[in-house]
């Protein structure tokens, strides 16, 4: 049954039941394997890319466990390997292909091993064909909109021993509720609230590989979050390529600020984050809801991409540097301590020295707490890939200059934190120094402070006073 009251296809109960039936069949085989071999079958997932992919991998893991597989830390010990790929930049694709190549010898050693590949990279027809021909040891491939059909695809391969390549090119995507999830963290949880993107920024492959925007229903999201809070989750991050347009495809008359307010009204001790927002739709109302709700983390990730209006127009971003900076000003007026992070692309086709200087100027005015900086990477099939490209050297130089400007800002901002107190979610011991805890502020700043011998603070949210700062790290002491 298709949900006809909205534009988005919801996977029907019958289809989900079908997947559960395949899950049960595979679980039966895996039980028989255990009885015969005295060990369970094991799965290993390698994830590339963004938080959406991490959330998808948690669903892949959930489905694998429902099918009777148990997790394993090294690919060499696995019976099932799933590679969840990213396509946003060339580098991510190269890494995924290289890792896939490295798994070849595992298959040679163990012909029973099943290697599967999924995610954004393989959702491009050309990549699918390349994998089909050049990676014969990859047994299953499925696009992002096919994720919930893993049990069926795996079953078809195991039962028929024929490679299964499932890519529904041009599929606008669907929503599948009720897929099992195995969360990687006990305190922080990803909650996808929508999938896909309708924006078609001219450099970006995402709309082509993740389909059209589709929102999960309000009640389904609230139910999931209630469950998470009941299970001790402290940090909920709402995920979507463009969370501000959540709800536009629903018939519920609700928008993202309403969703955020409804989540903040839930009982419990938690904070809610969200990402990513598009500046063209980041409304005052959303900022007001954040400012008025203590449970809304005071962190805003708002990608600027460029400070030149000419480049922003060529990127099809539909806002100006001025309107971007105005949103930031309003945010800081309503929430003076808010942490703001942003994405910048350098070396977009046609970016002149003057355009780039405008970006540096906007970065200096924005004074973000952190920037994620990217060298433009042409993506086949996107309009920007067909434009005239800049020389590599120009791109590299601009990246270095941008980083120098941002590092200066970050150091100044971190030094200004010294003497102040922040609520920190303690993540565990510092990687570099096992006598110290590492934790993060609401805005994601990394803070180190002395650990107690029994490490009882891991997973807790506690006040820490900052005593020292560097560009990327803060140090402090717990105020207990
Ligand atoms: N090249 C470089 N960076 C890109 N991004 C998206 N597409 C590209 C590309 N083709 C960056 C944008 C986006 C972030 C997730 O990745 O800055 O916000
Ligand atoms: Fe890509 Fe733009 Fe959509 Fe973000 S909003 S996923 S950058 S097309």
> Which architecture of the largest domain per CATH?
3-Layer(aba) Sandwich
**How many runs of DSSP E, i.e. beta strands?**
21
CATH superfamily of the largest domain: Methylthiotransferase, N-terminal domain
Shape designation: globular
Name of the top-level CATH class of the largest domain: Alpha Beta
Tell me the helix content: 25-40%
How many strands, what sense, and barrel or not for the largest sheet? Answer: 6 strands, parallel
CATH topology of the largest domain: Rossmann fold
Low-confidence stretches: 1-5
Q: How many structural domains can be distinguished in the coordinates? A: 4
Mean pLDDT: 94
Bound molecules: 5'-deoxyadenosine, iron/sulfur cluster
Structural class category:
alpha/beta
Radius of gyration, CA atoms, in whole angstroms: 23 Å
């Amino acid at each position: 049954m298709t949900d006809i009251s909205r534009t988005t296809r919801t996977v029907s109960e019958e289809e989900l039941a079908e997947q559960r039936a395949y899950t049960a069949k595979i679980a039966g085989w895996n039980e028989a394997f255990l009885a015969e071999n005295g060990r369970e079958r094991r799965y290993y997932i390698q994830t590339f890319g963004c938080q959406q992919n991490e959330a998808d991998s948690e669903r892949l893991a959930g489905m694998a466990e429902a099918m009777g597989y148990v997790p394993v830390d090294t690919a060499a010990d696995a019976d099932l390997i799933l590679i969840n790929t990213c396509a946003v930049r060339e580098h991510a694709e190269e890494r995924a292909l290289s890792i896939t190549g490295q798994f070849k010898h595992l298959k040679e050693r163990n012909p029973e091993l099943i290697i599967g590949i999924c995610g954004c990279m393989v959702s491009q027809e050309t990549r699918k064909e390349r994998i089909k021909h050049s990676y014969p040891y990859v047994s299953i491939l499925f696009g992002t909109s096919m994720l919930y059909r893993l049990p069926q695809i795996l079953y078809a391969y195991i039962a028929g021993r024929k490679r299964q390549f499932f890519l529904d090119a041009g599929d606008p995507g669907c929503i599948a509720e009720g897929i099992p999830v195995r969360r990687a963290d006990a305190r922080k949880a990803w909650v996808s609230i929508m999938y896909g993107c309708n924006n078609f920024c001219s450099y970006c492959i995402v709309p082509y590989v993740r389909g059209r925007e589709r929102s999960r229903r309000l009640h389904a999201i609230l139910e999931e979050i209630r469950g998470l809070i009941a299970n001790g989750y402290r940090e909920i991050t709402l995920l979507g390529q463009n969370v501000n347009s959540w709800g536009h495809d629903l018939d519920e008359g609700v928008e993202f600020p309403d969703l955020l307010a409804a989540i903040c009204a839930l009982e419990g001790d938690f904070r809610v984050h969200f990402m990513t927002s598009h500046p063209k739709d980041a409304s005052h109302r959303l900022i007001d809801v954040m400012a008025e709700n203590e449970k809304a983390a005071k962190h805003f990730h708002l990608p600027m991409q460029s400070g030149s209006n000419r480049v922003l127009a060529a990127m099809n971003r539909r806002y100006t540097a001025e309107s971007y900076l105005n949103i930031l000003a309003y945010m800081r007026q309503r929430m003076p301590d808010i942490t703001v992070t942003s994405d910048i692309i350098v070396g977009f086709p046609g970016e002149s020295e003057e355009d780039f200087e405008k970006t540096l100027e906007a970065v200096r005015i924005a004074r973000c707490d952190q920037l994620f900086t990217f060298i433009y990477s042409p993506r086949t099939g996107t309009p920007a890939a067909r434009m005239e490209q800049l020389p590599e050297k120009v791109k590299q130089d601009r990246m270095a200059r941008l980083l120098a400007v941002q590092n200066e800002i970050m150091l100044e901002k971190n030094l200004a934190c010294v003497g102040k107190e922040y609520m920190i979610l303690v993540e565990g011991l510092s990687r570099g120094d096992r006598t110290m805890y590492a934790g993060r502020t609401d805005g994601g700043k990394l803070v180190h402070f002395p650990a107690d011998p029994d490490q009882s603070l891991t997973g807790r949210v506690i006040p820490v006073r900052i005593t020292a700062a560097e560009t990327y790290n803060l140090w402090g002491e717990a105020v207990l």
